[in-house]
Amino acid sequence: MSPRARILVVEDEALVAFALEEMLSDFGYDVVGPAPNVQAALKLVGDEKIDAAILDVNLGGETVEPVAEALAAVGAPFVFTTGYSSASALPPAFKDRPSLNKPYQPEALREAVARLLGD
C-alpha cells in the first residue's frame, strides 16, 4: 500500500479549515496543519514532508506569499484559495499558479489536488 499524500492546509478561518481538512481526509489524503498564519505554515514547511499545499491568499491581513516562496523552493506544488476574484488576489510573482474560489466545491477541490499531485 502506498503512503497517503500529505497536503498542507494554510487557512486562518477555523470553520473553513475544518471543512477543508474533512474533505481532504475523505478524499484519502493526510492533512498537515491546518496552519492559521504565515509563521505556523513556514514552520510546517520546514519540519514536515509536504506533497502539495492549499494556501489561503489572505491570512488575517497578511499575505501567504512567503509560504508560497518556501514551497516553491522545496518543489512542493500548491494551489491558492480566495474568496475574492482569483486573478486580482494572487501575489504578483505567482499569478500563473492555479487557484480555487471559496466556498469550496468538493469536486473542484478533488480535481485541483489531483492535478497538483500529477494524478
Automatic annotation (TrEMBL):
This protein's UniProt keywords: Phosphoprotein
GO biological process: one example: phosphorelay signal transduction system
Start and end residues of each Response regulatory domain: 6-117
SUPFAM superfamilies noted in UniProt: CheY-like
Modified sites of kind 4-aspartylphosphate: D56
Pfam families named in the record: Response_reg (PF00072)
Keyword Transferase: no
PANTHER family named among the record's database cross-references: PROTEIN-GLUTAMATE METHYLESTERASE_PROTEIN-GLUTAMINE GLUTAMINASE 1, STRESS RESPONSE REGULATOR PROTEIN 1
UniProt-recorded name of the protein: Response regulator
Organism of provenance: Rhodoblastus acidophilus (Rhodopseudomonas acidophila)
